[in-house]
Write a structure and sequence with these properties.
single chain, 137 residues
């Protein structure tokens, strides 16, 4: 399986409801979860996973942006953006990026980012276990 596609599939799952709506997002999440589970058992599900992720414009663009962020594979909301008219030499001190905690399913089929300390850490919808923090590399 294509590792970058696998990572993008793990990252997109919590965002599917926002990208394609709750009903279709739930259906796509089930398909992705099944394909990731089968891939974890050694089956090559790359083509089927690509087909699901490319089936809607919003999920295709999201997937491409996550893959382009290799090796971090962050959702687009966490990727740095360049601002027009502001350059590193204009700012006091060196630029720094703010990171957010990354949580994963212990079984490895979902990635979730905690954007606020007020957000409750969710359960994996596939394995029904609490997501655990993935320490930065």
């Amino acid at each position: 399986m294509d590792d970058s596609l696998f990572e993008a599939a793990r990252v997109i799952r919590p965002f599917l409801g926002q990208l394609v709506g709750p009903a279709e997002g739930g259906e796509m999440d089930g398909q992705i979860a099944d394909l990731l589970d089968r891939a974890g058992k050694g089956e090559d599900t790359t083509a089927a996973l690509r087909e699901v992720l490319d089936s809607r414009e919003a999920t295709r663009v999201f997937t491409l942006r996550v893959i382009a962020d290799a090796p971090l594979y962050r959702p687009p909301q966490l990727q740095p953006r360049k601002l027009r008219g502001i350059y590193p030499g204009d700012l006091p001190g060196p630029p720094q990026y703010i990171s957010v905690p990354k949580y994963v399913c212990p079984e490895g089929d979902i990635v979730w980012y905690r954007f606020s300390v007020g957000q409750k850490i969710p359960m994996c919808q596939t394995h029904h276990v609490l997501l655990v923090e993935d320490p930065p590399e």
